[in-house]
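Below: protein 1.
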Amino acid sequence: MSPDGRALLAVARKELRVLRRYPLTLLNTMLFMPLYQLVLPVLLLGTAFLVKGRSLGMDELTGTSDFGGWLSAGLVGATVTGTVLSGPAQAMASERGLGTLEQTWAMPVSRRALVLGLMTCMTGLSLLAGVTMAVLVSLLAGAHYGPGTVLVLPVFAALVPGLAGMGLLSASLSLLWRQAVGLTDNLGYVVTVLAGVTFPVAVLWDALRPVSYLIPTTWAIDLSRRAALGADSLYPPAVEACALLATSGLFLAGGSALFGRMERRMRAEGALGQH
């Protein structure tokens, strides 16, 4: 295995070991906060407008009245995307506070590998948290998934490059502003809104809808809902699959390029080792 590959796995194991030392913090961040900040308010509000157990407006816009299942599919994408966007900045700020950031970055490996190692751990944990929340919502709201649910796996596999690009974007912002945790957290909230996690993308204002189409999470969530619930999709599945692959690649290329530029800038200014 290459040095970068070994560094990636080492960072992932280190982050997992650190998170295991604080299980309550991990549960609060990955599960409890999304539950009381997003899931329960949206679920209770949606339930209040059900007519004889059916969401008629949802049925008209999306082709399914299964509000719980529809929301669950969005929650998985929102949890993964929000964690990946905020995670690298939070981890870099934590290492800076502990005084270990310089030693970590002094290793003779690509710093992209260090960021991606962190993301490997966070993506796995956030997927687990997202699926757990989806199961809880399904139990509470009585969601019903079809046999096509297994197709969600390749959909989220295609989202992984886009998530890697988002993580590199988060790390780039942390290099640029140092204290970027608040900014990356807000970016996660914006993506949650634009990706149609809690409402159909079709109701977005016309000016915002094209921005939503540039986010790979939008296509991943829409394809997941079609596969698991038989819901209507924004466009034909083949078109959405191509859009997902294209936007994921675009985010990966853009995030990697921005991170490289920020790294070169910090090195030229002599500030990288004192970040």
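Below: protein 2.
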Amino acid sequence: MSDRTPAAQFFDAAIGLLQRVRDEEAVAVEAAGVLLADTVASGGRLFAFGAGHSSLAAQDVVYRAGGLALMNLLVVPGVVGVDVVPATLGSALERVEGLAGAVLDTSPVRAGDALVIVSLSGRNALPVEMALNARALGVKVIGVTSVAYTTETTSRHVSGTFLKDHCDLVLDSKIAVGDAELSLDTVPAPFAPASTVVTSALLQAVMATAAASLAERGIEPPLLRSGNIDGGHEWNGRIMDEYRDRIFYRR
């Protein structure tokens, strides 16, 4: 038994995972950031999607101080977060085939756009079909997932494939199957998930790369500032007016 507190053990585990993705996913992060910058530079729009707790990382890059103003949340009713009642409905909807197609058909997503899909397991029908259908529309897809699930679980999609199989780029979060970093003899189940910490960091690294890539091309990155600093609202108003045809969370 370790003499470190559970809190210290969790921090160590999370830091270890962050170091792994920093080092092992550096090439993929760079490529994803450049892909988003290419999309912005060519007039495309940016979208992010995640179901359940995977939606937390997707939401974190939308309408975010210090983030790209063009990142929009692709909403699937009933699966964004745990606000739906009962919360278990969201998990059930992730397994419904055909839902992703219906959502994309009624969304503003079109050819030339980029879509970030976050799914820890990547095994359910919703993220798999979201990637499949988006690419069929001519949309570039970045998947953020744990590749470990593809070897230790089975797909729930009729094709037998996972999210990672239908993406232009994949970011591997390195999260172990089950998403629990700690265990104790006195606790009957593993606990302390780190997927949100790691996935959010991965996506913010991609956003930082995209902003820098745009600047290198002489394009001002469409970044938002905090509304809690002097001049923040005015700055954001200018950015939103300039890019109003590519921002959908104001409508």
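The mean pLDDT is 94.
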